[in-house]
C-alpha cells in the first residue's frame, strides 16, 4: 500500500524537489502486529531532519493517522516514510515552497538468512569515503549517492561494507551503524558529527547498554581499533543486530552480550 | 511537454531511485529556435556522470530523437534532462538494476531582468560550505542539498551566492561558476576536483578566452583574491554571464572583456 499526501497512489510529480534535488528526509521502520517499532524515535529523527532542511513538517496527528492506516492490518512488514519539500518552481530556492509531499509505503518484511544474526557476517572494507558535511550529518536525507557507491563495491560474498571518512576514521556500514567491543569489555560507536546517519537502532542499543550498566563511548574510531577489537556488530532497524564474523582477514568471536542485545531487540517497544 | 522513457507523462514511480537516493544525473539546456545550445557538451557531461555512477546510459540515437521531439517547435525554452537509475528493489545496491529512467521536460525560458547582465549583480557570501567528495565532483548529480541550503541563505536583495568549501577555498555560485579577473588582466576560475559542478557555460567561456588569447588559470582560489579582484563574473547555461557589481561591501568594475564574452554567448552553437 502506498499513500501520497493521504491518497492511495504510486506515482509522484516529476517536479517534486525530492527527485530534483534529493530535497527531503526518510525513515525505514519495522512493523510487527500492526505496530511500527520505535516509532517515537523515528518521528523524532524525521523532525530533526525536516528542521535542518527547513521543510514545513506535516501535522503530527495527521501523520500518525496515516501511519496507523497503512500499518493496521500488517502482521509484519516494512514501512517507508518519505517527506519531501514537495513540487517547486525552477531553481534551488526552498523559501518559496510552503508545502511538502508525504509518502508512506509498506513492503514485505526483509527476511535475511538466520545465520547472519547467528554466526555473523563477512564485512567488506569499502574504498568509497564519506565527505565531511556537518550540516547534513546524523539525519536520514535523500542525498544517498555515497551509500550507493559504497554498496556497489561488493557482491553477495559480503553482507555489509564498512565505510570510512576522508580523515580515515571509521564511520558506519553502508546501511547500518557499527559498535566495537574493546578488550576491556567496554563498547565504542563512532562519532557522527561530521558524517553518517545516527540510526534509531543505534540509539536503542546505546540505551540498552546503559540499562545493562555497560559504558558506550561515542568518539572517533580508527581502523586499527576495529581490527584489534574483541568483537564487532552492526545494527539497523530492519536487520536488528548482526555480529561480524570476518573483517579484513580476521575472524571475531561472538560474546554473550551480543545474544543479550539481540534478545532485547526481540521485545522492541 | 514532459517525456518519460519516450512517453508523454508527468508522474514517476515512487520506487524510482532518483527519488529514493538522488541516484541520477541531470542537465539544464537552453533551447533557441528549436536547437538545444551546446548540446554535445551537455551530453558529454551527462555521460561522464552516468559513468561515475555506473548507470546504464540511454541509447544515444534514441536520446537525441527524444530531444528533437521535445524541442522542435520551441522558439525559446529550457530543456531539463534527467537520467535516473530507474525503479529499484529495496536497498542501496545498484548492481541489480539494469534499467534507467529518462525524463525530458521543457519549461518557459527564464527571463531575468536585463540589468543583471548589464549593470551586474549583488553577490552574497554564503555560510554553507561544500564538502570534499572527489567521487561526485564535477558532474551534475541529483544530490543537491548543499545548494538548497546555500540558496536558502539569501533573498531577493542578492541575485547569487558565492560558496566556499570546508578548506575555505572559493568554489562556485549556488547555481553558477565563478571567474575572477586579476589585476594583470589574466583570468582564474576555481579548481573543481574536490567539489562543485563544472558548468558547460564555464567550458564555453574557457574556450572563448583561449580563442581571445587570454590565459585562464584553473586553480584553488582564496577569498582574498576574490575581494581584491579587478572584476568578477558568474556563468551558467541559462543566465549566460552576469558580472558582479557588489560583493562583500566592495563594488567591482565591468571591463570590456565581459561585453565581448556576452557577445560570444549571443551566438552559441
Supply database-style keywords.
D-amino Acid Aminotransferase, Chain A, domain 2; six-stranded antiparallel β-sheet; 27% helix; 269 residues; alpha+beta; homodimer; nine-stranded mixed β-sheet; globular; D-amino Acid Aminotransferase, Chain A, domain 1; 2 domains; 8 helices
Task: Give a concise summary.
Chain A is built from 8 helices and 16 strands. By secondary structure, chain A is an alpha+beta fold.
Protein model, in words:
- The structure is a homodimer of 269-residue chains.
- Chain A is an alpha+beta fold and 269 residues long.
- Chain A has 2 domains: 2-108, Aminotransferase class 4, branched-chain amino acid transferase, N-terminal domain (D-amino Acid Aminotransferase, Chain A, domain 1), CATH 3.30.470; 114-266, D-amino Acid Aminotransferase, Chain A, domain 2 (Alpha-Beta Barrel).
- Chain A contains 8 helices and 16 strands.
- In chain A, the strands form 2 sheets. In chain A, strands 8, 9, 10, 11, 12, 13, 14, 15 and 16 form a 9-stranded mixed beta sheet that branches. Chain A has a 6-stranded antiparallel beta sheet with strand order 2-1-7-6-4-5.
- The two termini of chain A are 24 Å apart.
- In chain A, 48% of the residues are buried.
- Chains A and B meet through strand 3, helix 1, strand 6, strand 7 and helix 5 of A and strand 3, helix 1, strand 6, strand 7 and helix 5 of B.
